[in-house]
Amino acid sequence: MTESKMIDPSVKWLAKSWLGETYVYLDRQSLLSQTKQRISDYICQELQRQQWNGPPFQPENLFKCRRILEKSEKALPSSHLGILIPVRGGFLMKIRAEVPKLRKRFTIAHEVGHTFFYDIDQEIPTRKFVRSRYWVEEDFANFVAGAILLPEASLREVIQERRLDPSLEALARLSKVYMASADVICHRLVRELRLWDCLIFKSVIESDGSIKTNGSFIFKGASFRGWIVPKLVAEHASFPSLKSPHESLRRGGHLQSSLVSAIKNTISYLRTGVNMHIREFDHRGQKFSLQAKINPKSSPSSCTFLVRKATV
Ligand SMILES: [Zn+2]
């Protein structure tokens, strides 16, 4: 099977619309990254045309150019946070009413993301491709949501001007300024734009003192690709038990026993009642700093960790 045949029809259509016919010369990776870059630039330009009314940026600012006629808040079925309905002249957007504020902002921006899969120059927006995979479009709509709430140009400027190096404090500040949740910010900052070179993960502290890490909340910057965040760190075991062989372990990743000890020491310190702790640890001759912060509103208590190279 050739490379182009493996590309999802929806992505192929998007690439053709945004990159022109030259898209056929690109491999899957470049096609996806160049299409994303083009759409991210388009979003920045649209927001700039409106005098950068942010941060925080309102997804509603994209409604006109994406032909969204009306947004209404409804009691939607539990499977849906938002729905986009093509009608004569554009789209109607329905958003589930009873959703926390930040989640709602992300959902509105995500639904704007779905408009990119339609030819919006038709009287009724139309899809021009068939047999696309559901998750491809969902992933892309999530990317667009991040690009709207955290536009690349704004984020680069804010990080540079305010000298926001990776830290949990900076993450909390960015969340407040951009009105976006920590996972959306980490995804954009660490994975997509690679503006922060650090490792961020969130764990739950069980009543027996063991620490379980949620696999969907692990973000690894360039220097941390080979690092493994253990799924379970038991308080009294000398080594963490790995429930299932981790993907990156099979690929030659290294279990960071130094990280495990740092996590254990940090947690026993935090269990004395403090909310936040920073400690340094050595790994392969290099110094790293581990920051940990208990999330006071969560139950059972959860803790966010950030690892970065220690500043000399
Ligand atoms: Zn969706």
Bound molecule kinds, no repeats:
zinc ion
Mean residue pLDDT: 88
Shape: globular
- Describe the sheet with the most strands: 6 strands, antiparallel
Strand order of the largest sheet: 7-5-4-11-10-9
| Overall number of domains | 2
What structural class should be given to the helix and strand makeup?
alpha+beta
Task: Please give the share of residues in helix.
Answer: 25-40%
Give the termini distance in whole angstroms: 51 Å
By DSSP, the count of extended strands is: 11
Strand content: 15-25%
Q: What is the string of helix and strand elements?
A: HHHEEEHHHHHEEEEHEHEEE
Computed CA radius of gyration, to the nearest angstrom: 22 Å
| Number of helices in the DSSP assignment | 10
Low-confidence stretches: 237-253
Question: How would you describe this structure to a colleague?
Answer:
The protein is α+β, with helices and mostly antiparallel strands. It is 38% helix and 22% strand. It has ten helices and eleven strands. It has helices spanning 3-6, 9-19, 28-49, 101-114, 134-149, 152-161, 168-178, 182-192, 247-250, 257-270, and strands at 68-74, 82-87, 90-96, 199-205, 211-220, 227-228, 232-233, 254-255, 276-283, 286-295, 302-309. The strands form three sheets. Strands 7-5-4-11-10-9 form a six-stranded antiparallel β-sheet. Helix 2 (9-19) packs across helix 3 (28-49), helix 3 (28-49) runs parallel beside helix 5 (134-149) and helix 4 (101-114) packs across helix 5. The longest helix has 22 residues, at 28-49. It is globular. Residues 237-253 have low confidence and may be disordered. Bound molecules: zinc ion.
